[in-house]
Structure formats: C-alpha cells, structure tokens
Design a protein that fits this description.
This protein is mostly helical and 465 residues long. It has helices spanning 2-24, 28-45, 48-65, 79-97, 104-122, 130-153, 157-184, 192-195, 213-232, 239-257, 260-278, 280-299, 307-317, 320-339, 350-359, 374-382, 387-406, 416-430, 438-452; strands at 70-71, 74-78.
Length: 465
Amino acid sequence: MVVMKESWKLIICMLLLCFGVVASLLSGIGIIMAICVLLLVLVFMLDFNKIEYALWIGIVVTSFFGSYLGLPGNNSIFLFRVLLLLHVPLFLWKLSRNRLGYSKMEKVIVILIMCWLFGNVASMLWANYISATFRYLYFVFEAGYLILITLYHVRSKKDLALLTYFISAVYGFCLVIGLIEVLTGWHMSLSGNVLEYTQERHKYRPAGLQYNYNDFGAFLVMFLPLVVWGINTWKWHVKYVLIVAVVGLSGFLVINTYSRVSMVIWIIEVVVLLILWFRVWGVIASVIGLLAIVSVNVLHLGAENSSLFTDVVSAFTEKGGSTNERLMMYQKTLQIINESHFLGVGVGNVPIELNNSIMGHGTMDNAYRAPHNFILETVGNIGLWSFFLFAVIVMVLILSLKYLFVHMKYGFFAVVPVLIMAEFLSASVGISTIIEIRFLWISLGIALAIVSNQAFWRRDGEWGF
C-alpha cells in the first residue's frame, strides 16, 4: 500500500510539473500558474498539515499588504490571492481527513455563515446588474473564508499569541510608515493620497498600507488591544515602555487620519486599558486626562497654537457636509430596501442602485456609490438573508459581554473581544464599505474564536493581563 501511495504521488507530481512548464510558456500569468504548480509539487513532498498552517499564516500577513505584493502593472494578481488559491484545496483536504473539531457554538456559527454565503449566491437570481454581482460575490466568499479559517486555527491562547506576533510586526511597520507620512507628506505608491486625494489638505494624512485614512484609522484601533496584549506576554521589562510608545503613536496617527469614529474608539480603548491595567490609578489617570481635555477646551490654553488639538476639533466640527451626505445616502438606501420588500436588489447591486437614485438616472458604465453603512448595504443586497450574518455578530457581542463580566479577573484580555467588536461595528458605518477590508473579517474571526472556545478561559496565571 505504501509503494502504491508513493507511486500515485510521483505520477501526480510529474503531471503537475508538465502542466506548469506549458503554462509558463503561454504568458506572464502563466508564470504565476507555474509557481503555484511548483508549490503544489512541494505539498505532495512535505507534510500537508504544516504547509496548510504556514499558508494560513501567510494569508493573514499578506492580507494587510494587498496589491503591494502584486505583479507590476497588474494589481489584481497579488500574493494574498495566490496563497488563498493554494490554501483552499489543502484546507478542504485537511477537513476531509480530520473532523472539524469545532465546539457546538462554533458549529452554529459555521452554519450561520454558510447560510449567509448561500443567500448572497441566491440573490443573483433577481439582480439587475449581473456583472456587478461576481466581483462583490468574490469578496463575500473571501470574507466568509477568512472568518472560518481563523476560527479553525485559533484554538487557544498559544495559537492567538503566535498569530499576534505576526500581526504586531505588521502593525509596527504600519506605525513607521504612518509616522513618515505625517512628517514628510510621502505616501505609499498605491495610497489614495497618491492616486485620488491629491488636495493639499490630504498631503499629511496617513494611510499606511490601506487605500485611505479612514481605513488606516480603523486598522490602528482594531488591532491595538491585541497588539498591547501580545507585547505584555513578553518576558522583557522594556515591554511597558514599548506599550506606551505603541499606544501613544497609534493615537497620534489616528488623530491625523481625521477619523472621528476611530478617535472615539481609541479613547475608549485607552481608558479601558488604564482601568483594567492600573486599577485605581487607572481610574484616577482617566479622570485627570478627561479634566485636562475639558480644561483646554474651555480655557483655550494654548489651543490656538496646538496643531494636534486643532485637528481633533476640526474632525468633529468641520465635517457637517460629510455627515449630511451620509444621512442622505442612508435615507436613499432605506428607500431601496423598502422598494425591494426586504428581498434585496441582488448581491453587489446596492451601490449601483444608490448612485442611480441620487443621480436620478442610470449610467452607461454602471457607476456606483458605497452607502457607508454595511448593515444597510447588506440588507439592501440580499434582504432577509443578511440576518444570518447579523446573528453571528449579535452572538459574538453577547458572548463577549458575558465573558467580560464572568472573567474580569483575567484583566485586559477579557475585554479584547468586546473592543474588537466595538471597532468592527464602528467601522461598518465609518468606512464606505467593509466587504473589501480583509483585516476586519480576520479580526471578526479572532473574536469568534475567543468567545466560542473554552480553552481561552482556563485558569492560567501566565495570561493574567
């Protein structure tokens, strides 16, 4: 049997190699196909489980870089998608050989997500703009897949700690990039500040590896709690200095993004960190900090000369036009939902229908406008099918709050899933559309893993923070 198995592997490897050589001779894309084939050959020669796990880590890391790791001149083909394409068959093979290992709660979550995915596919039957459905549907499957594989692999705090190390490395890199952007006005080549937002007022707004500053603000506050927790697991005493530096620098960059929602979430995270970390002194520090902010606001002590203070004030007082525009889009989207009788207009069709409603007519190129509210967007797209996803989000919120009160003795870790979900919900209304923002779906998977697996809440003094 062993000889037959090895012969079967050899035959498959030879066929794959021949296919790879032919593909590489056809075009530039064929070269990528050849690389994928060669990697598949390695898969047959090495341990499937180890390669599948390594690919998952690679998917998480490359998801932050997006098109920056793509082919020159073809930004739609990049490393994340190549790794994702390689991972799917390996993951399915792994599932066919082993049981899922999900708890009852996790199985319910998986079923709900699968129903949400099915609803998106089913809505294609009544969509007016079929061409728009395929692109959006890809991102829907990408989001669902990222949730499921994160839920599958993050089984304990050790798994989470390993993942956090990689995320922290990317986070630190983004902090450096953001600081350079604020100080020099230089931006990454695929940043919206280079490609679209060319006005002078956008010159010093950081975007990091994201397209625009709102996305970057969401990234900073989304992973701040996890990064702080990860740094605190280190044995070095210098970790406390590093935590203060990361929190302070992230706050500085969030303010410079002018993202109001991200500013509010950052303040909440810092207050919670102080209260749970320093206990009584944290409460006193939070009160003093709030009083200082109010005093500066009331007495204007140096406010005229404080660029940072001016940025905060202007972010909340000079966006009236943006707020009114969003309210108008919400109203139009609600109208689209009512006219569809809560069946939806088809996956990916809401942005086009919204633009047509605002313009008063359709366009030849099916121009679209994101509704800046993912809840309304997904209800408008697939109607009642969206409630399967909402059930998952509500479930995570309830379990997060439960563990927060029951396991408060665990300190800051107990509030991590709550803060992740708070940022996820705030991003759903703070970002134009979150379906394409991969890090949000990875973070949702992390929150799901934490609250649905009892292994995270076993008594272990090593994880007291």
